[in-house]
Amino acid sequence: MAVRIRLARHGRKKAPFYRLVVADSRAPRDGRFIELLGTYDPMTDPAAITVNEERAMHWLKVGAAASDTARGLLRKAGVWEKFEAEKKPVE
Q1: Cβ contacts of residue 54 below 8 Å, gap of 6+?
Q2: From CA 11, how far away is CA 5, in angstroms rounded?
Q3: Which domains occur in the chain, in start order?
Q4: What sign does the CA torsion over 53, 56, 58, 63 have?
Q5: Which residue, 28, 30, 51, 56, shows the most beta carbons closer than 10 Å to its own?
């Protein structure tokens, strides 16, 4: 099973609200997911991003691939840099 970290769209028309979820890559965009990692609200100024860093790190370590948009949100939250730092070998 290929697992991805991606966004699921919620909210009403012209007022989007996204959930950052871990889902099977074959599942529909707004369909079944494995775990909720956080939220993203682009309608606020500045955009509100909340991420459960511990669980996001866990899923990245076990091989979940992040979509381009999810990777950008993880970078803004500071999770992606921590993951990259742990991935590099210690010299």
Answers
A1: none
A2: 20
A3: 3-87 (3.30.1320.10)
A4: negative
A5: 56
